[in-house]
Amino acid sequence: MAKYLLLKHYRGAPAATNDVPMDQWTPDEVSAHMQFMQDFADRLQTTGEYVDSQALSPEGTFVRYDGEGRPPVTDGPFAETKDLIAGWMVIDVESYERALELASELSAAPAAGGKPLGEWLELRPFMSQPPTITE
Amino acid sequence: MDEALLRTLTPTVIGILGRRGADFAAAEDAVQEALVEAVRAWPQDPPRDPKGWLVTVAWRKFLDATRAETSRRHREERVEAEPPPGAGVAVDDTLQLYFLCAHPSLTPASAVALTLRAVGGLTTRQIAQAYLVPETTMAQRISRAKRTVTGVRFTEPGDVGTVVRVLYLIFNEGYSGEVDLAAEAIRLTRQLARKTPHEEVAGLLALMLLHHARRPARIRPDGSLVPLAEQDRSRWDTRLIAEGVDILQAALASDNLGEFQAQAAIAALHADAPSADETDWVQIVEWYDELVRLTDSPVARLNRAVAVGEADGPQAGLAALAELDPALPRYTAVAAYLHERSGDPETAARLYAHAADSASSVAERDHLTRQAARLNTQLRS
Q1: ipTM score of the complex?
Q2: Does A26 reach chain B within 8 Å, measured CB to CB?
Q3: 8 Å CB contact between B234 and B225
Q4: Which of B23, B93, B196, B315 has minimal CB crowding within 10 Å?
């Protein structure tokens, strides 16, 4: 099994194929989308491929150390041009192909007009533990 | 195997070990070990006297631990350093345990964890699961909390105010995992209310019961939030409401008002309305005035603006809102609501979308997005 991170972006990813902001959908379309996301996570739990998922607030700040006894330096909120992560899902799957398949299904969540959203999800493999047997 | 009974006995047994001379941290450890053994042994061989069984086993665990060379040395040093115990006061062990677990030297998160374990009898794994942190993290939090209160004597008088705040936190932070934290907070508050006549304990218990009564109507099967005005009131638990109202009335009769009684009074007025339209908003505004006077809390002021909007119209609500800091959480959502009521759906839709961006929970964000979508759909047609 291999773990993958599916990253969803508020901005920074290429535009979705059905790129209408959610507040311009109908309430039923919003509900259908939410239900799809919930069902997707539930289904992955039953297949034993779900690890974790979290949503992030769009508010964020850069922080860095600024020397002994000094308060940390902060920079933010993030500039409008900054790549902004909206949330993630971690999956544990048999193959890269399976990870692609699941990411594609998630990207097809219903959106405006009931058509698939077609948003770009970033798929990132986890670094794994070194194997015990190497020869 | 009666897990509920086991958990009810936990604080009592810790208290008994404490009276026999065990310090809190050691007593708590010993009782946790005894609980683990009970879970293993009781299904095959249920004891006739569960409490006696737990006391015997926990006391043995305690002795085993203190007999270990290092612990003994540690303990001797500590006993020497402690002042001699004062005159024995007959105090309720469980009540003292509440005070200790909510001791002001603890951070709120530590007090919550320690209360759930020592008073509530939950395992570290259950608490960790409820708060979505790894079990090792929660174990560390609990053992650090225990070290912090090590020097506190069982007979020191405690502050009910700190205890009710901890119980409020447990209730209010929702629930996940196998343990229903809201129900657990109610159980612990009920138990506390039996041991102290303090009006704010009664007020908190009433507040919890009145909110818990609405739970079946608060969330749709898909997890989305249902606003108070849209809730199916036939699904509210009338038994819990009646109990909450009785408890609140008895507390208010003592004429020692506090913030939890005021909050419970507001919840009771909502519970009392057969439909949203029949809500007594004028009285609710009066209770918010009391709450603002008692707490000076910006959140109370924000909620007051909503109530003013209902009692005196949306323009009055917007005027009350204008006096508050726009950086307050949920300020924009309230502004959106009042603008819609005042007949300005364009502004409301824009504000709802904006409010969704700064929501602090997914359920709230989705709800606000849906409101914006609803208004924009209406505006297009």
Answers
A1: 0.85
A2: yes
A3: no
A4: B315
Pick the CATH number of A2-125 from 3.30.70.1060, 3.10.560.10, 3.40.50.1460, 3.30.1490.20: 3.30.70.1060
Alpha-carbon span B276 to A79, nearest angstrom = 43
Using a CB–CB cutoff of 8 Å, tell me whether A37 touches chain B.
no
* B-chain residues near A30 (CB < 8 A): 366, 369-370, 373
Q: Cα distance from A68 to chain B (closest Cα, Å)?
A: 26
Cβ–Cβ below 8 Å for B370 and A31: yes
Q: Is B121 exposed, middle or buried (0-12, 13-18, 19+ CB in 10 A)?
A: buried
Query: Per-residue b/e over B22-60, b at no fewer than 16 CB within 10 Å?
Result: bbbbbbbbbbbbbbebbeeebeeeeeeebeebbbebbbe
Q: How far is CA B351 from CA B142, B169, B341, B356, B363, in A?
A: 42, 30, 13, 8, 17
CA–CA distance, B152 with B154 (Å, rounded to integer) = 7
- Is B370's CB within 8 Å of A26's CB? no
* Ordered strands of the A2-11 beta sheet: A50-55, A84-93, A2-11, A122-125
Indicate yes or no: CB of A23 within 8 angstroms of CB of B353. yes
Q: Flag whether residue A29 sits within 8 Å of chain B, measured between CB atoms.
A: yes
Mark which residues 135-154 of B lie under 8 Å from A by CB: none
Chain B residue numbers with beta carbons less than 8 Å from the beta carbon of A58 are 357-358
Which of A8, A10, A23, A59 has the highest number of chain B CBs within 10 A, making it the mutation to test binding with B?
A23
Does B362 lie at the interface with A, CB-CB under 8 angstroms?
Answer: yes
DSSP per-residue codes, B65-93: HHHSHHHHHHHHHHHHHSPPP-S-----H
pLDDT in tens, chain B (381 residues): 677 888 889 999 998 888 888 888 888 989 989 988 888 888 888 899 999 999 999 999 998 888 875 665 665 555 444 444 444 444 578 888 899 999 999 999 999 999 999 999 998 998 998 888 899 999 999 999 999 988 776 556 678 999 999 999 999 876 566 788 999 999 999 999 999 999 999 999 999 999 999 999 998 877 788 999 999 999 999 999 999 999 999 999 999 999 999 999 999 999 999 999 999 999 999 999 999 999 999 999 999 999 999 999 999 999 999 999 999 989 999 999 999 999 999 999 999 999 998 898 888 999 999 999 999 999 998
B289 vs B55, B210, B282, B296, B354, CA distance in Å? Answer: 50, 20, 11, 10, 29
Tell the burial category of B321 from Cβ atoms under 10 Å away from its Cβ (0-12, 13-18, 19+): buried
